[in-house]
């Protein structure tokens, strides 16, 4: 009985420690990656502002090619919604909403996840001309984790985890746009 109480006390202590740690841990995270593409900025922006094109370069969108997809509105314009519903846990279900477009420069997207975990994230794609035939593309992603789930941020490097996927997606984008010369 004494061993049981000791084990129970240790487990309770660990839970309390995790909860206290979560109170002191940040709740938000942000990741940004960029790449240079050898195409004119106007051409690059025209391609990335259409969410349907993400099916060809976005690692997360490509995770389940047979996911049920739904489109609402005019692609490439504010208010357009790209929704997906996958049977694969990794892809889950959710939707992307174009919330703002600064033509030729930036597109802001709100991503709502329904499963496997509910949540909201904000993403953006920015293009900037480096030269008449070179464009810098920046892709950012930011979100928050609610208490006490934010304690996972201590052990998880979201920059590394999400950054790899953003890097791969940007490499895919570069290949597509530079191959279509």
From TrEMBL:
Q: Which residues cross the membrane?
A: 6-25
Q: What is this protein called?
A: Polyketide cyclase
Q: Record's SUPFAM superfamilies? A: Bet v1-like
Q: Which domain of life is it from?
A: Bacteria
Q: Name one GO cellular component term.
A: membrane
What organism is this sequence from?
Answer: Mucilaginibacter terrenus
Q: Which Gene3D superfamilies match?
A: 3.30.530.20
Keywords, sorted A to Z: Membrane, Transmembrane, Transmembrane helix
**Which InterPro entries does the record match to this protein?**
Glycophorin_CS (IPR018938), START-like_dom_sf (IPR023393)
């Amino acid at each position: 009985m004494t061993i049981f109480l000791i084990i129970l006390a240790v487990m309770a202590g660990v839970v309390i420690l995790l909860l206290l740690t979560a109170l002191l841990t940040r709740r938000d995270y942000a990741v940004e990656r960029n790449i240079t593409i050898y195409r004119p900025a106007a051409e690059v922006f025209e391609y990335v502002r259409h969410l349907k094109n993400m099916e060809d370069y976005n690692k997360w969108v490509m995770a389940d090619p047979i996911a049920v997809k739904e489109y609402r509105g005019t692609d490439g314009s504010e208010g357009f919604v790209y929704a997906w519903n996958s049977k694969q846990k990794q892809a889950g279900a959710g939707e992307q909403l174009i919330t703002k477009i600064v033509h030729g420069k930036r597109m802001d997207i709100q991503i709502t996840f329904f499963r496997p975990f509910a949540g909201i994230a904000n993403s953006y794609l920015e293009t900037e001309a480096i030269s008449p035939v070179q464009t810098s593309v920046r892709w950012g992603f930011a979100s928050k984790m609610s208490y006490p789930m934010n304690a996972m941020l201590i052990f998880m490097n979201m920059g590394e985890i999400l950054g790899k996927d953003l890097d791969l997606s940007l490499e895919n984008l570069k290949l597509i746009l530079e191959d279509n010369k």
